[in-house]
């Protein structure tokens, strides 16, 4: 499997860094959710969780979710199966890893920072991990339960375009007031650039995140009132192939 650094450098939310839009590159419609185990294992959070449960000597990057018999079972597994797009077996594997990594049953922000520092050693992931944690922490109490964790993961990895965009809006809306400001969008973009590390994109100039934000914002803020609403965000993203392909909905930075 590819090393994280190269994998992480192919676009994600970073704007159109001279990349072919995904739909053209792969010859398939971009929206089709990838349900393979390999796609699952490209997710840092899944890798983190499953690393503790992978059988010794196995290559966990093969994307094997079929782990040895699972003893742990979360409360309401059937309900979680109905709420998410994970199979029962996948939920059991995720839960087993979650309990190994977080015996208290809760993930805090410092854990997110450690995970992302591990997967993006070439940059500073602190700020991005902070924003991402807040997007998962729906009730804002500083801790994420297993249930919140897998519901969020399910949207990001297997949700419809509409579901993923709503989640993306929530990430960008840092103060959760229902609007995205240019400053909020810039803060998220900068945090991703910082995490990717300067050498990942040696050609980038300091003002590149600001340029992307300026361009995105002009397209999204349809009534020019200085803020982007969820309606404006959804409409623009779904109509604009460049925004869709450059967002590539987090697949490389979750």
TrEMBL record:
Disordered: annotated segments: 1-20
Localization per record: Cell membrane
Molecular-function GO terms, alphabetical: calcium ion binding; DNA-binding transcription repressor activity, RNA polymerase II-specific; potassium channel activity; potassium channel regulator activity; RNA polymerase II cis-regulatory region sequence-specific DNA binding
Xref: Pfam families: EF-hand_7, EF-hand_8
Spans traversing the lipid bilayer: none
Gene3D superfamilies: EF-hand
PANTHER family, per database record: CALCIUM BINDING PROTEINS (PTHR23055), CALSENILIN (PTHR23055:SF165)
Protein name: Potassium voltage-gated channel interacting protein 3
Species in which this protein is naturally found: Macaca nemestrina (Pig-tailed macaque)
Lineage: Eukaryota, Metazoa, Chordata, Craniata, Vertebrata
């Amino acid at each position: 499997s590819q090393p994280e650094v190269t994998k992480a450098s192919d676009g994600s939310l970073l704007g159109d860094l001279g990349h072919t839009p995904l739909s053209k590159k792969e010859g398939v419609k971009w929206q089709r959710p990838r349900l393979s185990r390999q796609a699952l294992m490209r997710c840092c959070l899944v890798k983190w969780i499953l690393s503790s449960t992978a059988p010794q000597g196995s290559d966990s990057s093969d994307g094997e979710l079929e782990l040895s018999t699972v003893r742990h079972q979360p409360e309401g597994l059937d309900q979680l199966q109905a709420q998410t797009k994970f199979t029962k077996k996948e939920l059991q594997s995720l839960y087993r890893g979650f309990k190994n990594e977080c015996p208290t049953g809760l993930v805090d922000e410092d854990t997110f920072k450690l995970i992302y520092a591990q997967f993006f050693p070439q940059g500073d992931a602190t700020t991005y991990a902070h924003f991402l944690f807040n997007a998962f922490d729906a009730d804002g109490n500083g801790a994420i339960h297993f249930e919140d964790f897998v519901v969020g993961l399910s949207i990001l990895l297997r949700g419809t375009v509409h579901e993923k965009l709503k989640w993306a809006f929530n990430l960008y809306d840092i103060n959760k007031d229902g609007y995205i400001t240019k400053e909020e969008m810039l803060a998220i973009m900068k945090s991703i650039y910082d995490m990717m590390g300067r050498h990942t994109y040696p050609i980038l100039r300091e003002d590149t995140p600001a340029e992307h934000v300026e361009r995105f914002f002009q397209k999204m803020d349809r009534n020019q009132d200085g803020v982007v609403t969820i309606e404006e965000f959804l409409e623009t993203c779904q109509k604009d192939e460049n925004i869709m392909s450059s967002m590539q909905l987090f697949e490389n930075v979750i």
